[in-house]
């Protein structure tokens, strides 16, 4: 059994220009508090957890009320750069959510990658503010961060945080920055280390996965099983890294969109870990998202 996540991009506003940004933020759109309450009602019985994201979610004017409302029924995560987080906001959401901070390197590495001088120092202040709260640091495995893995694990320990290493999926801004993509050989060298850290339990987890013949029998243990995404303009997608649009919540209810989507062969295949679509001829065996998953949906927007 796995947790079912609904990831909601509540605003398209963002001060950063991250080189890997899947959504190519900033962009227009913001979901109102009233619309979000409607989503939370429709999502009942379909999801266990809500991920509040953006853009930068702390720039939404109703962020505190959104978290309070969602926390009545769901486990709530907020994915953030730390921008916009204040003592006042923290007091209103304390003990109602788990904060997930994005980190792309130490010091100037993070600033340059995010296109914002001082971004690392701002993030450190947010980690200081939340030192006593449950949190996660999420790291996208781009080329420049690979030499800093040990430093990042140490930093996470200092702030009592789980550190989560994610594979870099070539969508959004990443398609404009091919220089950030790690070589398969680099991932091959890193993979055993991340798996060993993960098996120790506790502070380090990773979604990085190498496709092998075993996946054709058992399926891939996907982080996105049961997962859906809603954009600031109301489009519903299989996940935040996907271009396929399943419907729009301003045209139909979320419940109707989900019921119809789950009947499609592509979604059913995802829930089985793409067991019947595993390919062993991938140029990069760590990148199955666009080569296997996205191809099944055959979205015209890809």
Describe the structure.
- With 302 residues, the protein is an alpha/beta fold.
- The protein is 32% helix and 15% strand.
- It contains 11 helices and 10 strands.
- A 10-stranded mixed beta sheet has the order 7-6-5-4-3-2-1-8-9-10, with helices on one face.
- Strand 3 (75-80), helix 3 (87-93) and strand 4 (98-102) form a beta-alpha-beta unit.
- The chain is globular, with a radius of gyration of 19 Å.
- The mean pLDDT is 95.
DSSP helix fraction: 25-40%
Sheet/helix structural class: alpha/beta
Low-confidence stretches: none
Number of strands: 10
What string gives the helices and strands in order?
A: EHEHEHEHHEHEHEHEEEHHH
Measure the end-to-end span: 31 Å
The dominant shape is globular
Kindly estimate the percentage of residues that lie in beta strands according to DSSP.
5-15%
Radius of gyration, in Å, reads 19 Å
Strand order of the largest sheet: 7-6-5-4-3-2-1-8-9-10
Mean pLDDT: 95
Number of helices: 11
Largest sheet: 10 strands, mixed
């Amino acid at each position: 059994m796995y947790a079912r996540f609904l990831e909601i991009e509540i605003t398209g506003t963002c001060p950063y220009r991250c080189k890997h940004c899947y959504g190519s933020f900033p962009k227009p759109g913001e979901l109102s508090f009233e619309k979000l309450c409607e989503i939370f009602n429709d999502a009942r019985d379909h999801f266990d957890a809500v991920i509040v994201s953006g853009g930068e979610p702390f720039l939404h004017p109703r962020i505190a009320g959104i978290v309070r409302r969602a926390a009545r029924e769901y486990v709530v995560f907020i994915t953030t750069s730390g921008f916009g987080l204040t003592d006042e906001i923290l007091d209103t959401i304390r003990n109602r959510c788990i904060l997930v901070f994005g980190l792309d390197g130490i010091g100037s590495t993070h600033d340059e990658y995010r296109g914002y001088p001082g971004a690392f120092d701002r993030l450190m202040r947010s980690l200081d503010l939340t030192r006593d709260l449950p949190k996660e640091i999420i790291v996208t495995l781009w080329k420049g961060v690979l030499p800093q893995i040990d430093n990042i694990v140490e930093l996470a320990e200092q702030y009592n945080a789980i550190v989560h290493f994610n594979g870099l999926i070539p969508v959004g801004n990443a398609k404009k920055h091919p220089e950030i993509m790690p070589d398969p050989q680099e991932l091959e060298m890193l993979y055993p280390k991340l798996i060993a850290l993960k098996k120790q339990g506790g502070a380090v987890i990773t979604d990085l996965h190498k496709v092998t013949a075993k996946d054709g029998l058992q399926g891939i243990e996907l982080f996105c099983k049961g997962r859906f995404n809603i954009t600031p303009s109301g489009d519903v997608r299989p996940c935040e890294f996907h271009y396929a649009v399943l419907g729009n919540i301003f045209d139909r209810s979320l419940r109707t969109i989900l019921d119809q989507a789950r009947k499609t062969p592509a979604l059913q295949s995802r829930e089985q870990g793409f067991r019947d679509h595993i390919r062993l001829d991938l140029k990069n065996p760590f990148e199955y998202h666009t080569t296997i998953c996205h191809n099944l949906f055959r979205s015209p927007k890809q």
